[in-house]
C-alpha cells in the first residue's frame, strides 16, 4: 500500500514533504509561491452536514421561481430550468446545454458525489467506485459556476427594475444561500478523503503496511488524489498507484493543444462581439443588442457599476485570457527563462478568472426567460451568445491544457547544467 508524505507543486513541480497544518493555515511553494495545500480537519460529520444542507438548498434553487415581473397586470416568472427550456425551444441548444452543465449538472455531481463518499467513510466503508467518484468531485468543481450565476441573477434583477416591477421569489434567496454554502464546501479539499480512505483500508487489513519509498525511485505526482509515488504500468501507460489516474511527466502536447484552442477562441471572439447576443421584439419593432450595446445601456441608465462589471467580465477578461495564454504558450515554446514566477502568477490569474466570462451568458438566459409578454415584448437569444459561450469554454480548456511546469523546465535545466559545470571545474582543480 502506498502512502508517502510528499507533495508536488502543481505550478512548478518542486517536491516537498508535507507536515500537518492547523485549520486556515496554508503551505506555499518557496519557488513560485503557489498554495500547495491548506489545513483542514477531516471532520466527516461537518462535511456530511454541510453537503447535505447544500443539496437541499440546491433543489429549492433549481425548481422554485427566481423572480417575477409585473407590467400593468401582466406577470412573468422564471426558474433556472425553465430558462434553459426557453433557450432550447429557440434553437439555442448549445447555449442551453452549457448553462445546464455549468449551473445544474456539475454542481449536482459535486454535491452528490461528495455526500456519497463522505457518508460511506463516516460509516467506516469505502463505497463502490470510491476513486472514480472523488475524481468526479474535482472535475465538477472546475466547471461549476454557481457564484457566477448568482451575480448574473443580481444583474438581471437590476436590469429588469427599469422595465417592470420585480418581485423576489424563493429561488432568489435559495441561490444566495447556495452560493455561501458551496463556498464553504469548496474550501474542503477532496484529497483529504483519499487519505481517510487509505487509513480505513489499512485498519481493515491489519497485515497491510505502507511501502517505503526506495532511494532514487522515480516518482510522479497525481493531481487527482495528490499522491506522489512511483507509478504503475509501463512505457507511456503509467497510472497512479492509488486512484488509477493516467500519469505523465508533462501533459502530452500541452503547447500545441493550447495554441489550437486559443486560435479557435480568437476566431470566435470576433463574431461574439459583432453579432447580437439578444434580440428584443416589441410594439416598436425589433432591436439587436450586442455586448457593447448592453454595457452602454447600463451606463446611460445610471447603473455605471453594473456596466463596469459586465464590461470587465465580457470584454476585458476574454481579451486578457487570450493575450495571457498566448504569452505563456509562446514563452514556454521558446523555453524562455524570462520572469518565471511572474508568468506563473499570470497563469494562476487566468485559471481564477476564466469562468467569470460566463456572466453575460447567464444574464441573457434569465432575461430571455423573464421577458415573455407576447405581443408587448419578447426577448430572444442571438447568435452572439453562442459564439461568446464557445469563447469562454475554449479559453477555459486552453488554460487546463497548458502545463505551468513548462515555465520552470528551462530554469531547472540551466540549474542542472551549471551544477555539472561546477563539478567538472572542481574536479579539474583537484587534478
Features:
431 residues, alpha+beta, 14 helices, globular
- How much of the residues is beta strand, in percent? 5-15%
Q: How would you describe the shape?
A: globular
Q: Write down the CATH class of the domain at 252-413.
A: Mainly Alpha
Pattern of helices and strands? EEEEHEEHHHHEHHEEEEEHEEHHHHEHH
Describe the structure in brief.
By secondary structure, this protein is α+β, with helices and mostly antiparallel strands. The chain has helices at 44-63, 80-89, 93-122, 130-143, 146-160, 170-186, 191-204, 254-274, 291-300, 304-333, 340-353, 359-370, 383-401, 405-430; strands spanning 6-8, 15-17, 26-28, 35-38, 67-71, 74-78, 165-168, 220-221, 228-229, 232-234, 237-239, 246-247, 278-282, 285-289, 377-381. Among the domains are: 46-168, no CATH class; 252-413, Butyryl-CoA Dehydrogenase, subunit A, domain 3, CATH 1.20.140.
Describe this structure in words.
The chain is α+β, with helices and mostly antiparallel strands and 431 residues long. Among the domains are: 46-168, no CATH class; 252-413, Butyryl-CoA Dehydrogenase, subunit A, domain 3. Helix content is 58%, strand content 13%. A hairpin with a 2-residue loop joins β10 and β11. The longest helix has 30 residues, at 93-122. It is globular and about 85 Å long. The model has no long low-confidence stretch (mean pLDDT 88).
Amino acid at each position: 500500500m502506498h502512502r508517502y508524505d510528499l507533495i508536488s507543486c502543481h505550478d512548478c513541480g518542486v517536491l516537498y514533504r508535507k507536515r500537518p497544518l492547523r485549520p486556515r493555515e496554508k503551505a506555499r511553494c518557496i519557488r513560485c509561491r503557489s498554495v500547495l495545500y491548506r489545513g483542514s480537519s477531516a471532520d466527516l460529520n461537518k462535511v456530511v452536514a454541510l453537503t447535505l444542507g447544500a443539496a437541499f438548498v440546491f433543489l429549492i434553487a433549481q425548481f422554485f421561481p427566481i423572480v417575477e415581473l409585473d407590467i400593468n397586470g401582466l406577470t412573468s416568472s422564471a426558474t433556472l430550468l425553465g430558462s434553459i427550456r426557453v433557450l432550447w425551444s429557440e434553437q439555442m441548444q448549445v447555449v442551453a446545454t452549457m448553462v445546464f452543465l455549468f449551473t445544474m449538472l456539475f454542481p449536482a455531481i459535486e454535491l452528490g458525489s461528495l455526500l456519497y463518499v463522505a457518508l460511506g467513510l463516516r460509516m467506516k466503508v469505502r463505497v463502490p467506485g470510491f476513486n472514480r467518484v472523488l475524481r468526479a468531485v474535482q472535475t465538477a468543481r472546475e466547471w461549476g459556476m454557481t457564484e457566477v450565476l448568482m451575480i448574473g441573477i443580481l444583474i438581471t434583477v437590476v436590469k429588469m427594475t427599469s422595465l417592470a416591477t420585480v418581485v423576489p421569489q424563493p429561488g432568489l434567496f435559495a441561490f444566495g444561500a447556495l452560493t455561501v454554502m458551496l463556498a464553504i464546501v469548496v474550501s474542503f479539499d477532496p484529497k483529504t478523503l483519499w487519505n481517510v480512505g487509505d487509513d480505513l483500508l489499512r485498519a481493515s487489513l491489519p497485515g497491510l503496511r505502507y511501502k517505503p519509498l526506495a532511494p532514487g525511485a522515480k516518482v510522479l505526482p497525481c493531481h487527482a488524489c495528490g499522491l506522489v509515488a512511483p507509478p504503475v504500468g509501463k512505457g507511456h501507460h503509467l497510472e497512479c498507484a492509488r486512484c488509477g489516474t493516467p500519469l505523465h511527466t508533462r501533459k502530452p502536447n500541452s503547447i500545441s493543444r493550447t495554441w489550437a484552442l486559443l486560435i479557435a477562441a480568437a476566431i470566435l471572439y470576433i463574431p461574439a462581439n459583432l453579432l447580437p447576443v439578444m434580440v428584443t421584439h416589441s410594439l416598436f419593432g425589433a432591436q439587436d443588442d450586442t455586448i457593447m450595446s448592453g454595457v452602454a445601456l447600463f451606463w446611460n441608465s445610471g447603473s455605471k457599476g453594473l456596466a463596469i462589471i459586465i464590461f470587465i467580465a465580457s470584454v476585458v477578461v476574454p481579451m486578457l485570457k487570450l493575450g495571457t495564454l498566448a504569452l505563456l504558450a509562446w514563452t514556454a515554446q521558446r523555453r524562455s527563462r524570462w520572469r518565471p514566477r511572474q508568468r506563473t502568477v499570470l497563469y494562476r490569474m487566468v485559471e481564477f478568472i476564466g469562468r467569470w466570462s460566463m456572466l453575460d451568458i447567464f444574464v441573457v438566459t434569465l432575461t430571455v426567460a423573464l421577458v415573455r409578454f407576447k405581443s408587448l415584448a419578447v426577448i430572444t437569444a442571438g447568435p452572439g451568445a453562442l459564439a461568446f459561450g464557445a469563447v469562454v469554454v475554449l479559453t477555459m480548456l486552453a488554460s487546463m491544457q497548458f502545463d505551468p511546469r513548462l515555465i520552470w523546465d528551462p530554469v531547472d535545466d540551466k540549474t542542472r547544467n551549471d551544477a555539472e559545470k561546477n563539478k567538472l571545474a572542481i574536479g579539474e582543480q583537484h587534478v
